[in-house]
C-alpha cells in the first residue's frame, strides 16, 4: 500500500512538473495545489476532515477546478469559497470558463471581465501588467497564485 501511495505521489509530482515546464505558473502564497497536497495537510484545511480528505484524494488528479468543486459538493458554497483561499487547482488564463474564474475567492463580475479582456495571455508578466492596473501588488500576488499561462514552444 505504501508503495502505491509513493508511486501516486511521484506521478502527481511529475505531472505537476510537466505542466510547470510548459506554463508560467503563479507563485503559491496562501494556497496549495489540490493535486499535490498531502492527505495530512488536506485534512487540516478549513471544513475538511479525514473522511472528506480521503474522498478528495481518491478523485485525484483534478484536471480543472470544476472537478475539485464537484468533489467538494458536500460542502456549502460558502465553505468551498473559504477553502479555496487555501486549496485550488490553478486555472489556464486563456481557456478558463467564467465559472472557473469566479471560483477564485474575491473575484466578481468586474474582475472576470478584466481577466477575459486581455486574452490571449502570452506570459504571466502580461497578467501583472494588465490586472495590476486594477489592484495593488498584494492583491495581484494573491490572484497570481490561482492562474497559469501556457507557454507555446
What sort of overall outline do the alpha carbons produce when their principal axes are compared? Answer: globular
What is the CA–CA distance across the termini? Answer: 39 Å
Structural class: mainly alpha
Largest sheet: 3 strands, mixed
The helix-strand sequence is HEEHHHHEEHHHHE
Number of strands: 5
Mean pLDDT rating: 87
**How would you name the oligomeric state of the polypeptide chains in this document?**
single chain
Strand order of the largest sheet: 1-5-4
Radius of gyration: 16 Å
- Helicity, in percent? 40-55%
**DSSP strand (E) fraction?**
5-15%
Give the number of helices: 9
Which segments are poorly predicted (pLDDT under 50) over 5 or more consecutive residues? Answer: 4-21
Notes on the structure:
The chain has 153 residues and is mainly alpha-helical. It has helices at residues 2-21, 39-43, 50-58, 65-71, 77-83, 98-102, 109-117, 124-131, 137-144; strands at 23-25, 32-33, 87-88, 91-92, 147-150. The strands form two sheets. Strands 1-5-4 form a three-stranded mixed beta sheet. Strands 2-3 form a two-stranded parallel sheet. The chain has nine helices and five strands. The longest helix is centred in the first third of the chain and has 20 residues, at 2-21.
Amino acid at each position: 500500500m505504501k508503495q502505491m501511495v509513493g508511486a501516486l505521489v511521484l506521478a502527481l509530482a511529475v505531472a505537476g512538473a510537466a505542466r510547470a515546464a510548459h506554463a508560467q505558473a503563479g507563485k503559491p502564497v496562501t494556497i496549495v495545489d489540490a493535486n499535490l497536497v498531502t492527505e495530512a495537510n488536506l485534512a487540516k484545511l478549513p471544513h475538511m476532515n479525514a473522511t472528506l480528505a480521503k474522498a478528495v484524494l481518491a478523485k485525484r488528479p483534478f484536471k480543472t477546478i470544476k472537478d475539485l468543486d464537484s468533489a467538494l459538493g458536500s460542502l456549502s458554497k460558502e465553505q468551498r469559497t473559504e477553502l479555496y483561499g487555501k486549496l485550488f487547482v490553478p486555472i489556464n488564463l486563456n481557456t478558463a470558463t467564467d465559472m472557473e474564474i469566479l471560483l477564485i475567492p474575491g473575484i466578481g463580475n468586474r474582475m472576470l471581465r478584466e481577466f477575459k479582456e486581455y486574452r490571449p495571455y502570452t506570459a504571466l508578466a502580461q497578467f501583472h501588467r494588465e490586472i495590476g492596473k486594477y489592484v495593488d501588488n498584494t492583491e495581484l500576488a494573491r490572484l497570481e497564485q490561482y492562474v497559469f499561462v501556457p507557454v507555446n514552444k
